[in-house]
Amino acid sequence: MCLPAIAMVAVTAFQMYSQYQQGVATNNYYKSVAQQQEQQAKLDYARGEKQAELDTIQAKYAGKNQAEKSTMVSSSQRAAMVANGVDLSSVTAEDVASDSWSKAETDEMAIRYNADINNWSTMEDAKYKRWAGQVNAANSKQAGKNAMNQAYVNMGSTLLSSAASMYGAGMFAKAGTPAIAGQGGYLAGTPAGARNMGTWTKF
Question: How far is CA 30 from CA 4, 20, 44, 141, in A?
């Protein structure tokens, strides 16, 4: 094989190797990004679960405090009525007590309702973040695969282009004939009549 052909083969090999390494590096990058996105998705969901748990605990204590407050109010009302000579078994006393307890129950229900809404909202947000993270991770993995596929395409294109260039430059010459500028691998200026169809060898 002549030196120009050897040099072109070496350049082609280097180009293909570089294209492959670039594809590998890009694929590894997207794999790393995908892992981070998956981890972040798990953390977002876990954080949402913990926040919902804390909201439930806070609502429980808020309801308990409201119940204690309502009891204190009711006791104060009963004491005030007794001090004013109101019979606690009277209709008026019962109406006041009933109204107080109704308001207390309404407040406790509002606390529980708000807690449920907050829990639902927190968990829905956590689910969405987890789903979005998983989608982003899948897209990143696909991007990495696409990068490798493109690297293979580029390698194939480089190989074909190099082969075409070598053929066009007459580097596929007849055995024993120097591959220099000439058509079909013959020496430049070789008469057509001196050419034959003997055995050909690829350098």
Answer: 39, 16, 21, 6
